[in-house]
Amino acid sequence: MTHAHPRTALSVNVNKVALVRNTRHLGIPSVTRAAQRCLEAGAQGITVHPRPDGRHIRAVDVQQLAELLRAWPQAEYNIEGNPTQNLMDFIRQVRPHQATFVPDSESQFTSDHGWSLPQDAARLRPLIDECHALGVRVSLFMDPVPEQMAAARSVGADRVELYTEPYAAAWGTPQQAAQLARYRAAAQAALAAGLGVNAGHDLNRDNLADFLAQVPGVLEVSIGHALIADALELGYGDTVRAYQRCIDQGMAERDS
Predict the structure, then answer these.
(1) Domains and CATH numbers, the chain
(2) How many C-beta neighbours within 10 Å does residue 105 have?
(3) 49 is known as an active-site residue
(4) pLDDT band at residue 31 under the 50/70/90 scheme
(5) 105-150 pLDDT tens trace
(6) Residue of 56, 76, 201, 220 marked catalytic
(7) Is 220 annotated in the active site?
(8) Contact status, residue 36 vs residue 68, Cβ threshold 8 Å
(9) Which of 49, 76, 161, 220 is catalytic?
(10) Among 56, 76, 80, 161, which one carries the catalytic annotation?
């Protein structure tokens, strides 16, 4: 299948595998084995979001996944987190392909908003510069606000990750079209500013194709909770292949 735009990559967030493992002291389920199974099934990347309290991904996981990914040179390693907390230590140690800066507080339950620019620019700029000096691409977790995209580029970001929970919450309701219009406008503004576009949060097998059909230029989707939940029923391989079919469907609709 050929596309008019680069095919959207699937990066699997394995945080929830670690969360289950951490409820016991047996080392199962294995985070690295989960990542390997997903890569074997065709995932193009692995994402982790190590939080300061170690509630799921731990420092040893970050290192072990970096080692695993050396055997998968075609796949990308994406490490998410707040660069003012513990993220930069991991970036310096393993130098992943991408660092996704997320403005979470230390106790935050899950990511629920993007950066505010230019208010956050002064503290972000030197950290983005450091990542670039290490050879690491930087993506900023952002709300779908078109006016913010040029500001993200001016602070030095290479990409933005559009926070998609509002779209996911509206999917299948009368508000879906309006939400998709917001994301389409934000993606267009990001592309016009010279940014790459990623997306993530609450994307799943139901809503992913519709999103990709309407939002231009999405280079990567990072999916964790729904994908790992699906894998409990379907297995890692069948789940990854199901998400890849969703991506193909969305891109085919967009390019038709």
Answers:
(1) 9-255 (3.20.20.70)
(2) 9
(3) yes
(4) very high
(5) 555 545 557 889 999 999 999 999 999 999 999 999 999 999 999 9
(6) 201
(7) no
(8) yes
(9) 49
(10) 80
Instruction: Check whether 100 has a pLDDT greater than 50.
Output: yes
**Residue 201 annotated in active site:** yes
- Reading the block at residue 99, the tokens are 């660092």
Q: 119: how many CB neighbours lie within 10 A of its CB?
A: 10
Per-residue model confidence as pLDDT tens digits over 179-192:
999 999 999 999 99
Q: Residue 138's beta-bridge partner residues?
A: 99
Look up the pTM and report it. 0.92
Q: How many CB atoms lie within 10 A of CB 173?
A: 10
Q: How far is residue 182's CA from residue 49's CA, in Å, rounded to a whole number? A: 26
CA distance 41 to 33: 12
Q: Please give the full DSSP string across 55-103, using - where no structure is assigned.
A: SS--HHHHHHHHHHHTT-TTSEEEEEE-TTTTHHHHHHHH--SEEEE--
Residues 6+ apart with CB under 8 A from 38: 12, 14, 46, 236, 240
